[in-house]
Write a structure and sequence with these properties.
- With 294 residues, this protein is α/β, with parallel strands linked by helices.
- It is built from twelve helices and 15 strands.
- The chain has a six-stranded mixed sheet, with helices on both faces.
- Strand 3, helix 2 and strand 4 form a beta-alpha-beta unit.
Length: 294
């Protein structure tokens, strides 16, 4: 029996970056017109769970484009960027910092859509989020000053809220590099892992994205009361969806329309599964503030 399309998507997750010549896009003149679209996301938490949440969006893309959509579950932020730059992936959801980094390597990379968050305890409503420095509530750590000499978790070197803002904005405010202010600085690999390690007492503090903290505590109300925020950055533009600029213009337009027009990605099913208010159009200039931090 042939697996259904949703199961096929999950079966296709591993090793997509090693495709090489297999399934290489068919070129029409000087642009790329792939026979199947390959999509990936930066690993903010449980990647398989995130892909399951994205399934209605992927279904809408298949319908709008009329071609199969495959998913590459990347092990790191850098792996998604590498796949985009090599052409192994055509469409991706990046973080703001990883987008800025990737666009420096490929100026044709195009940010075209993002989303507005719903309001929650940790996340205001709008197409932005914050870098939060969190500790376990109820402990002796009450503010930034009492964190000096403690253990810190970052997320990934390419994470905006989990590395870039802490290293360039928070460090400037305290007047020292993170490695000098804290006794130990390491990377957890995802926002969810950072939250879990703080709550388990494995580290003293962590920088995470407000939207990620909201998602990590949404199904565990008791967790909200176990987290204390001791520092908050200014607003950061939400994660961009990007496509390779080498794609044929007609395909680019169909992808763009699938996200920002009524119906498609704006359908209630897609928005509910992703727990966002709506999709919004964006362009490269929306991420200038992140480029300036770099």
């Amino acid at each position: 029996m042939n697996p259904n399309p949703r199961r096929r998507t999950l079966m296709q997750l591993p090793l997509l970056a090693a495709l090489g010549a297999h399934g290489a896009p068919a070129l029409a003149a000087d642009c790329e017109r792939p026979e199947r679209l390959r999509f990936s996301i930066i690993p903010r938490g449980d990647v398989r769970k995130e892909i399951a949440q994205l399934q209605p969006l992927l279904d809408q893309l298949r319908s709008a484009l009329g071609i199969p959509v495959e998913v590459y579950a990347a092990p790191s932020y850098g792996a998604v960027v590498e796949a985009l730059l090599s052409g192994a992936v055509h469409l991706a959801r990046l973080g703001p910092a990883s987008y800025v980094s990737a666009r420096r390597a490929d100026p044709l990379l195009t940010a075209f859509a993002s989303y507005a968050n719903k309001a929650s305890r940790f996340q205001p409503a709008g197409a932005f989020y914050h870098s939060l420095l969190i500790v376990r509530a109820g402990g002796k750590i009450a503010d930034v000053k009492t964190l000096r000499g403690k253990r810190l978790a970052l997320v990934d070197p390419e994470s905006t809220s989990g590395a870039l803002v802490p290293r360039h904005v928070f460090a400037k405010q305290v007047g020292q590099p993170l490695e000098a202010y804290f006794s130990q600085v390491g990377y957890s690999g995802s926002h969810t892992q950072s939250v879990n390690r703080v709550l388990a007492g494995q580290i003293d503090a962590a920088f995470v994205g407000s939207q990620n903290l909201a998602a990590a505590t949404a199904s565990h109300p008791a967790r909200e009361r176990q987290v204390r925020v001791v520092w908050r950055s200014g607003p950061i533009p939400t994660d961009p969806f990007v496509f390779r600029g080498q794609l044929c213009a007609e395909l680019q337009e169909r992808i763009r329309n699938a996200f920002v027009n009524r119906g498609g990605a704006q359908s209630a099913d897609v928005l509910e599964r992703l727990d966002v208010a709506r999709f919004v159009p964006v362009s490269d200039r929306d991420y200038q503030i992140v480029r300036e931090i770099y």
